[in-house]
């Protein structure tokens, strides 16, 4: 059994001429959203063995807040530049290459990729994936490389 947590980055600055999309940082509201989601995840006894995050500023900041709330060592965060502009197929490939020693993995990234992934690897009937939302999908697999072979079960969806 594998556990896959998906977390969408929290609310960030608007796109402007001063800052490109990749460099947008969390705003005050976004930091609060990430704190609240991190607190909810801690209450749900969330303990990822591995956290992989998009390298985009807003996702990395969200992952840092989550790691602090969950007691996950900041220095163990894995940034993956490919998560920034990936499709859910690209994300499936990233997940399928995770070493099988990791039983519980958290991905911090972007929409629509996370929403599409949630619907393609679980029986989810959710109709959205809000900023700073988080879900847990339990997968009845022993190897991450088998992630696309059967549907997992959506255990919870926490929307801020």
The helix content, as a percent range, equals: 25-40%
Beta-strand percent range: 15-25%
Query: Which structural class fits the helix and strand makeup?
Result: alpha/beta
Which segments are poorly predicted (pLDDT under 50) over 5 or more consecutive residues?
none
Rg, Å, rounded: 14 Å
Mean pLDDT: 93
The major beta sheet can be summarized as:
6 strands, mixed
- Which word captures the global form? globular
- Supply the number of helical segments: 4
- Please give the alpha-carbon distance between the first and last residues: 27 Å
- Tally the beta strands: 6
H and E order? EHEHEHEHEE
Please tell me about this protein's structure.
With 160 residues, the chain is of the alpha/beta class. It has helices at residues 28-43, 57-70, 88-96, 113-121, and strands at residues 2-8, 50-54, 78-80, 104-109, 134-139, 153-158. Strand 2, helix 2 and strand 3 form a beta-alpha-beta unit. Helix 1 (28-43) runs parallel beside helix 2 (57-70) and helix 3 packs across helix 4 (113-121). The radius of gyration is 14 Å and the shape is globular. The two termini are 27 Å apart.
């Amino acid at each position: 059994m594998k556990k896959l947590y998906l977390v969408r980055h929290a609310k960030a600055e608007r796109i402007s001429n001063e800052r490109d999309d990749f460099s947008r940082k969390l705003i005050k509201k976004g930091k609060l959203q990430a704190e609240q989601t991190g607190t909810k995840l801690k209450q749900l006894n969330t303990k990822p063995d591995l956290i992989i995050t998009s390298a985009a500023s807003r996702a990395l900041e969200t992952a840092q807040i989550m790691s602090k709330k969950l007691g996950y060592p900041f220095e163990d965060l894995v940034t993956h530049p490919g998560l920034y502009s990936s499709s859910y197929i690209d994300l499936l490939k990233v997940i399928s290459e995770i070493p099988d020693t990791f039983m519980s993995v958290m991905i911090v990234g972007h929409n629509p990729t996370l929403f599409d992934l949630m619907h393609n690897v679980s029986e989810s009937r959710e109709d959205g994936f809000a900023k700073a939302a988080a879900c847990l999908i339990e997968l009845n697999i022993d190897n991450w490389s088998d992630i696309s072979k059967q549907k997992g079960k959506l255990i919870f969806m926490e929307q801020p």
